[in-house]
Amino acid sequence: MGAQNVTRVVGPGRGPGGSPLAIAISPVLTGRDAFDAMRRKILDAAPGSRLVPVSAEGIADEPVDDVEVLLRGWSLGGDALDRFVGRASKLRWVHSVSVGVESVLTPVILLRGLAITNGRGVFDQPIGEYVMTMILSTCRRLPALLELQRERTWQPIQAVELAETTIGLVGLGGIGREVARLAAPFGPRIVAIRRRAGAADEPAGVQVLGGLEALPELLTLSDFVVLALPLTAETNCAIDDVALSNARPGSWLINVARGALVDDRALLRALRDGPLGGAILDSFREEPLPESSPFYRLPNCIVTPHTSWSSKAVLDRALDVFCDNLRRYCAGAPLNYVVDPAAGY
Fold first, then answer.
1. What digits encode the pLDDT tens for the residues 167-208?
2. Which of 1, 104, 105, 169 has the most CB atoms around it within 10 Å of its CB?
3. Are 236 and 261 within 8 A, CB to CB?
4. Active-site entry in 287, 297, 317, 328
Protein backbone atom coordinates (compact mmCIF):
# COMPACT_ATOMS: atom_id res chain seq x y z
CA MET A 1 0.00 0.00 0.00
CA GLY A 2 2.71 2.45 -1.05
CA ALA A 3 6.15 0.88 -0.64
CA GLN A 4 9.26 3.01 -0.71
CA ASN A 5 11.38 2.92 -3.85
CA VAL A 6 14.36 1.04 -2.45
CA THR A 7 17.39 0.38 -4.66
CA ARG A 8 19.90 -2.42 -4.98
CA VAL A 9 23.14 -2.89 -6.93
CA VAL A 10 23.59 -6.28 -8.62
CA GLY A 11 25.61 -5.45 -11.78
CA PRO A 12 27.62 -4.97 -13.81
CA GLY A 13 27.24 -8.08 -15.87
CA ARG A 14 29.95 -10.44 -17.05
CA GLY A 15 29.47 -9.66 -20.74
CA PRO A 16 30.82 -6.87 -22.97
CA GLY A 17 30.60 -3.43 -21.39
CA GLY A 18 28.92 -4.81 -18.30
CA SER A 19 26.04 -6.40 -20.23
CA PRO A 20 24.67 -9.69 -18.91
CA LEU A 21 26.08 -12.73 -20.67
CA ALA A 22 22.51 -13.89 -21.28
CA ILE A 23 19.00 -12.57 -20.63
CA ALA A 24 16.07 -14.98 -20.39
CA ILE A 25 12.68 -13.76 -21.59
CA SER A 26 9.43 -15.48 -20.69
CA PRO A 27 6.27 -14.68 -22.71
CA VAL A 28 5.51 -10.96 -22.51
CA LEU A 29 4.45 -9.96 -26.00
CA THR A 30 2.70 -12.03 -28.65
CA GLY A 31 3.47 -12.18 -32.34
CA ARG A 32 6.77 -12.31 -34.19
CA ASP A 33 6.85 -8.58 -34.98
CA ALA A 34 6.29 -7.70 -31.33
CA PHE A 35 9.04 -10.07 -30.19
CA ASP A 36 11.47 -8.65 -32.76
CA ALA A 37 10.76 -5.10 -31.54
CA MET A 38 11.29 -6.20 -27.95
CA ARG A 39 14.53 -7.95 -28.91
CA ARG A 40 15.88 -4.78 -30.55
CA LYS A 41 15.11 -2.65 -27.50
CA ILE A 42 16.75 -5.07 -25.10
CA LEU A 43 19.89 -5.48 -27.19
CA ASP A 44 20.14 -1.71 -27.53
CA ALA A 45 20.21 -1.51 -23.72
CA ALA A 46 22.58 -4.48 -23.30
CA PRO A 47 24.68 -4.93 -26.47
CA GLY A 48 26.26 -8.33 -26.81
CA SER A 49 23.85 -10.20 -24.52
CA ARG A 50 22.41 -13.51 -25.64
CA LEU A 51 18.61 -13.62 -25.46
CA VAL A 52 17.07 -16.90 -24.33
CA PRO A 53 13.31 -17.46 -24.83
CA VAL A 54 11.64 -19.29 -21.94
CA SER A 55 8.24 -20.98 -22.25
CA ALA A 56 5.32 -20.51 -19.86
CA GLU A 57 6.36 -23.87 -18.39
CA GLY A 58 9.82 -22.50 -17.50
CA ILE A 59 11.59 -24.47 -20.24
CA ALA A 60 14.32 -23.07 -22.51
CA ASP A 61 15.59 -24.72 -25.67
CA GLU A 62 19.03 -23.17 -25.15
CA PRO A 63 21.55 -23.40 -22.30
CA VAL A 64 20.70 -21.21 -19.29
CA ASP A 65 23.86 -21.68 -17.22
CA ASP A 66 25.05 -18.16 -18.18
CA VAL A 67 21.70 -16.35 -17.72
CA GLU A 68 22.11 -13.40 -15.34
CA VAL A 69 18.76 -11.66 -15.85
CA LEU A 70 15.18 -12.90 -16.29
CA LEU A 71 12.42 -10.77 -17.77
CA ARG A 72 9.31 -12.47 -16.40
CA GLY A 73 6.02 -12.14 -18.25
CA TRP A 74 2.56 -12.74 -16.82
CA SER A 75 2.31 -16.40 -17.80
CA LEU A 76 5.36 -17.65 -15.88
CA GLY A 77 3.85 -18.83 -12.59
CA GLY A 78 5.56 -19.85 -9.37
CA ASP A 79 6.24 -23.53 -10.10
CA ALA A 80 7.54 -22.86 -13.60
CA LEU A 81 9.60 -19.95 -12.30
CA ASP A 82 11.25 -22.15 -9.69
CA ARG A 83 11.88 -24.78 -12.36
CA PHE A 84 13.80 -22.25 -14.43
CA VAL A 85 15.61 -20.56 -11.54
CA GLY A 86 16.82 -23.95 -10.30
CA ARG A 87 18.74 -24.42 -13.55
CA ALA A 88 20.05 -20.85 -13.94
CA SER A 89 22.94 -20.92 -11.51
CA LYS A 90 24.26 -17.45 -12.44
CA LEU A 91 20.89 -15.69 -12.24
CA ARG A 92 21.13 -12.45 -10.24
CA TRP A 93 18.05 -10.42 -11.05
CA VAL A 94 14.39 -11.11 -11.90
CA HIS A 95 12.25 -8.34 -13.36
CA SER A 96 8.50 -8.92 -13.20
CA VAL A 97 6.44 -7.10 -15.82
CA SER A 98 3.50 -7.10 -13.40
CA VAL A 99 3.37 -4.97 -10.27
CA GLY A 100 2.03 -7.76 -8.06
CA VAL A 101 4.84 -10.16 -7.20
CA GLU A 102 3.15 -12.70 -4.90
CA SER A 103 3.88 -15.46 -7.47
CA VAL A 104 7.51 -14.29 -7.83
CA LEU A 105 8.42 -14.46 -4.15
CA THR A 106 8.90 -18.23 -4.27
CA PRO A 107 10.96 -20.22 -1.74
CA VAL A 108 13.68 -20.83 -4.33
CA ILE A 109 14.02 -17.15 -5.24
CA LEU A 110 13.98 -16.06 -1.61
CA LEU A 111 16.56 -18.69 -0.70
CA ARG A 112 18.81 -17.49 -3.51
CA GLY A 113 18.46 -13.87 -2.40
CA LEU A 114 17.87 -12.69 -5.96
CA ALA A 115 17.13 -9.07 -6.71
CA ILE A 116 13.50 -8.60 -7.76
CA THR A 117 12.09 -5.55 -9.52
CA ASN A 118 8.62 -4.90 -10.88
CA GLY A 119 6.67 -2.72 -13.28
CA ARG A 120 5.68 -0.12 -10.73
CA GLY A 121 4.01 2.86 -12.39
CA VAL A 122 3.48 1.18 -15.75
CA PHE A 123 -0.22 0.45 -15.25
CA ASP A 124 -1.32 3.40 -13.09
CA GLN A 125 -2.90 5.45 -15.88
CA PRO A 126 -5.03 2.78 -17.59
CA ILE A 127 -6.20 1.33 -14.28
CA GLY A 128 -6.99 4.80 -12.96
CA GLU A 129 -9.00 5.51 -16.11
CA TYR A 130 -10.83 2.18 -15.74
CA VAL A 131 -11.80 3.01 -12.15
CA MET A 132 -13.07 6.46 -13.11
CA THR A 133 -14.99 5.01 -16.07
CA MET A 134 -16.76 2.60 -13.74
CA ILE A 135 -17.46 5.17 -11.03
CA LEU A 136 -18.89 7.66 -13.52
CA SER A 137 -20.91 4.95 -15.28
CA THR A 138 -22.39 3.91 -11.96
CA CYS A 139 -23.19 7.49 -10.92
CA ARG A 140 -24.84 8.16 -14.28
CA ARG A 141 -26.74 4.84 -14.07
CA LEU A 142 -25.32 3.59 -17.37
CA PRO A 143 -26.10 -0.14 -16.81
CA ALA A 144 -29.76 0.68 -16.09
CA LEU A 145 -29.96 3.02 -19.09
CA LEU A 146 -28.57 0.33 -21.40
CA GLU A 147 -31.12 -2.11 -20.05
CA LEU A 148 -33.91 0.38 -20.79
CA GLN A 149 -32.55 0.79 -24.31
CA ARG A 150 -32.63 -2.99 -24.85
CA GLU A 151 -36.26 -2.94 -23.66
CA ARG A 152 -37.03 0.10 -25.87
CA THR A 153 -38.34 1.90 -22.80
CA TRP A 154 -38.21 5.68 -22.42
CA GLN A 155 -37.74 6.24 -18.69
CA PRO A 156 -35.45 8.97 -17.37
CA ILE A 157 -33.43 7.90 -14.32
CA GLN A 158 -32.03 10.20 -11.66
CA ALA A 159 -28.22 10.19 -11.49
CA VAL A 160 -25.78 11.05 -8.72
CA GLU A 161 -23.17 13.78 -9.09
CA LEU A 162 -19.68 12.61 -8.21
CA ALA A 163 -19.22 15.62 -5.95
CA GLU A 164 -21.92 14.15 -3.70
CA THR A 165 -19.93 10.96 -3.08
CA THR A 166 -16.98 9.70 -1.08
CA ILE A 167 -14.33 7.54 -2.75
CA GLY A 168 -12.36 5.24 -0.45
CA LEU A 169 -8.95 4.11 -1.65
CA VAL A 170 -7.71 0.91 -0.04
CA GLY A 171 -4.06 1.40 -0.90
CA LEU A 172 -2.34 4.64 -1.86
CA GLY A 173 0.44 3.48 -4.14
CA GLY A 174 0.68 4.51 -7.77
CA ILE A 175 -2.79 3.30 -8.71
CA GLY A 176 -4.48 4.85 -5.69
CA ARG A 177 -2.75 8.17 -6.29
CA GLU A 178 -3.74 8.13 -9.97
CA VAL A 179 -7.39 7.52 -9.08
CA ALA A 180 -7.20 10.40 -6.61
CA ARG A 181 -5.66 12.67 -9.26
CA LEU A 182 -8.31 11.84 -11.86
CA ALA A 183 -11.20 12.09 -9.40
CA ALA A 184 -10.17 15.36 -7.76
CA PRO A 185 -11.59 17.75 -10.42
CA PHE A 186 -15.05 16.19 -9.95
CA GLY A 187 -15.06 17.24 -6.29
CA PRO A 188 -15.73 14.04 -4.31
CA ARG A 189 -14.42 13.51 -0.82
CA ILE A 190 -11.45 11.11 -1.05
CA VAL A 191 -10.32 9.02 1.91
CA ALA A 192 -7.65 6.35 1.97
CA ILE A 193 -5.79 3.83 4.05
CA ARG A 194 -2.18 2.83 3.54
CA ARG A 195 0.58 1.01 5.33
CA ARG A 196 2.66 4.11 5.96
CA ALA A 197 0.27 6.86 7.05
CA GLY A 198 1.90 10.28 7.03
CA ALA A 199 4.35 9.48 4.18
CA ALA A 200 5.69 12.40 2.16
CA ASP A 201 4.05 11.25 -1.09
CA GLU A 202 0.47 11.56 0.14
CA PRO A 203 -1.45 13.55 -2.50
CA ALA A 204 -3.16 16.78 -1.58
CA GLY A 205 -6.89 16.48 -1.00
CA VAL A 206 -6.76 12.87 0.23
CA GLN A 207 -7.60 12.18 3.86
CA VAL A 208 -5.52 9.24 5.08
CA LEU A 209 -7.39 7.47 7.87
CA GLY A 210 -4.55 5.16 8.90
CA GLY A 211 -3.40 1.66 8.07
CA LEU A 212 -5.36 -1.55 7.52
CA GLU A 213 -6.84 -1.19 11.00
CA ALA A 214 -8.81 1.80 9.63
CA LEU A 215 -10.54 -0.32 6.95
CA PRO A 216 -13.87 -0.43 8.88
CA GLU A 217 -13.93 3.38 9.07
CA LEU A 218 -13.17 3.72 5.36
CA LEU A 219 -15.94 1.25 4.45
CA THR A 220 -18.43 3.13 6.61
CA LEU A 221 -17.63 6.44 4.91
CA SER A 222 -17.29 5.39 1.26
CA ASP A 223 -19.78 5.23 -1.60
CA PHE A 224 -17.09 3.65 -3.79
CA VAL A 225 -14.38 1.43 -2.30
CA VAL A 226 -11.40 0.89 -4.61
CA LEU A 227 -9.09 -2.04 -3.83
CA ALA A 228 -5.62 -1.03 -5.00
CA LEU A 229 -3.29 -2.75 -2.56
CA PRO A 230 -0.83 -5.62 -2.96
CA LEU A 231 -1.66 -9.18 -1.98
CA THR A 232 0.36 -10.17 1.09
CA ALA A 233 -0.18 -12.41 4.10
CA GLU A 234 -1.62 -9.38 5.89
CA THR A 235 -4.08 -8.39 3.14
CA ASN A 236 -5.26 -11.85 2.05
CA CYS A 237 -9.07 -11.96 2.53
CA ALA A 238 -9.05 -8.44 3.98
CA ILE A 239 -12.54 -7.99 2.55
CA ASP A 240 -14.47 -10.59 4.52
CA ASP A 241 -17.82 -10.79 6.33
CA VAL A 242 -16.59 -8.67 9.22
CA ALA A 243 -15.20 -5.97 6.94
CA LEU A 244 -18.26 -5.92 4.69
CA SER A 245 -20.59 -5.56 7.67
CA ASN A 246 -19.16 -2.04 7.97
CA ALA A 247 -19.87 -1.12 4.34
CA ARG A 248 -22.06 1.89 3.73
CA PRO A 249 -25.50 0.74 2.52
CA GLY A 250 -25.69 0.95 -1.26
CA SER A 251 -21.94 1.38 -1.72
CA TRP A 252 -19.95 -0.21 -4.54
CA LEU A 253 -16.75 -2.28 -4.29
CA ILE A 254 -14.24 -1.99 -7.15
CA ASN A 255 -11.41 -4.54 -7.28
CA VAL A 256 -8.54 -3.75 -9.65
CA ALA A 257 -5.91 -5.51 -7.50
CA ARG A 258 -5.98 -9.23 -6.68
CA GLY A 259 -8.95 -11.56 -6.31
CA ALA A 260 -7.55 -13.12 -3.13
CA LEU A 261 -8.02 -9.83 -1.28
CA VAL A 262 -11.72 -10.73 -1.17
CA ASP A 263 -13.59 -13.59 0.49
CA ASP A 264 -15.85 -14.56 -2.43
CA ARG A 265 -18.60 -16.05 -0.31
CA ALA A 266 -18.73 -12.99 1.91
CA LEU A 267 -18.89 -10.75 -1.15
CA LEU A 268 -21.72 -12.77 -2.69
CA ARG A 269 -23.70 -12.47 0.55
CA ALA A 270 -23.10 -8.72 0.70
CA LEU A 271 -24.23 -8.32 -2.92
CA ARG A 272 -27.36 -10.45 -2.51
CA ASP A 273 -28.46 -9.36 0.95
CA GLY A 274 -26.70 -6.04 1.46
CA PRO A 275 -25.17 -3.80 2.52
CA LEU A 276 -23.36 -3.46 -0.85
CA GLY A 277 -25.22 -1.87 -3.73
CA GLY A 278 -22.93 -3.51 -6.26
CA ALA A 279 -19.42 -4.57 -7.25
CA ILE A 280 -17.12 -4.06 -10.21
CA LEU A 281 -14.67 -6.93 -10.35
CA ASP A 282 -11.66 -7.11 -12.66
CA SER A 283 -9.68 -9.67 -10.67
CA PHE A 284 -10.58 -13.09 -9.28
CA ARG A 285 -9.04 -15.93 -7.31
CA GLU A 286 -9.52 -18.25 -10.27
CA GLU A 287 -8.84 -16.88 -13.73
CA PRO A 288 -10.34 -17.24 -16.25
CA LEU A 289 -13.50 -16.95 -14.16
CA PRO A 290 -15.47 -20.21 -14.70
CA GLU A 291 -18.75 -19.99 -16.61
CA SER A 292 -20.47 -21.40 -13.53
CA SER A 293 -19.44 -18.46 -11.33
CA PRO A 294 -22.43 -16.74 -9.68
CA PHE A 295 -20.74 -13.37 -10.19
CA TYR A 296 -21.72 -13.51 -13.87
CA ARG A 297 -25.40 -13.78 -12.97
CA LEU A 298 -25.73 -11.08 -10.33
CA PRO A 299 -27.57 -8.02 -11.69
CA ASN A 300 -25.58 -5.68 -9.43
CA CYS A 301 -22.16 -7.03 -10.42
CA ILE A 302 -20.03 -5.96 -13.39
CA VAL A 303 -17.39 -8.54 -14.36
CA THR A 304 -14.46 -7.69 -16.63
CA PRO A 305 -11.72 -10.17 -17.68
CA HIS A 306 -8.73 -8.69 -15.80
CA THR A 307 -8.45 -5.96 -18.38
CA SER A 308 -8.25 -2.76 -16.31
CA TRP A 309 -4.49 -2.56 -16.99
CA SER A 310 -4.75 -2.96 -20.74
CA SER A 311 -3.90 -0.28 -23.28
CA LYS A 312 -1.76 0.01 -26.38
CA ALA A 313 0.82 2.01 -24.43
CA VAL A 314 1.45 -0.24 -21.42
CA LEU A 315 3.63 -2.86 -23.10
CA ASP A 316 5.98 -0.20 -24.45
CA ARG A 317 6.13 1.40 -21.00
CA ALA A 318 6.77 -1.98 -19.37
CA LEU A 319 9.69 -2.63 -21.70
CA ASP A 320 11.05 0.89 -21.18
CA VAL A 321 11.09 0.34 -17.39
CA PHE A 322 12.99 -2.94 -17.83
CA CYS A 323 15.47 -1.51 -20.33
CA ASP A 324 16.19 1.51 -18.13
CA ASN A 325 16.99 -0.86 -15.27
CA LEU A 326 19.01 -3.03 -17.65
CA ARG A 327 21.23 -0.05 -18.48
CA ARG A 328 21.64 0.53 -14.76
CA TYR A 329 22.62 -3.11 -14.29
CA CYS A 330 25.25 -2.82 -17.04
CA ALA A 331 26.68 0.31 -15.40
CA GLY A 332 26.69 -1.19 -11.91
CA ALA A 333 24.18 1.42 -10.76
CA PRO A 334 21.34 0.80 -8.26
CA LEU A 335 18.18 -0.67 -9.77
CA ASN A 336 14.85 1.12 -9.54
CA TYR A 337 11.57 -0.43 -8.33
CA VAL A 338 13.22 -3.05 -6.16
CA VAL A 339 10.75 -5.29 -4.31
CA ASP A 340 11.10 -5.69 -0.56
CA PRO A 341 10.48 -9.42 0.04
CA ALA A 342 9.62 -8.80 3.69
CA ALA A 343 6.84 -6.38 2.73
CA GLY A 344 5.73 -8.42 -0.28
CA TYR A 345 5.86 -5.52 -2.76
1. 999 999 999 999 999 999 999 999 999 987 667 778 889 999
2. 169
3. yes
4. 287
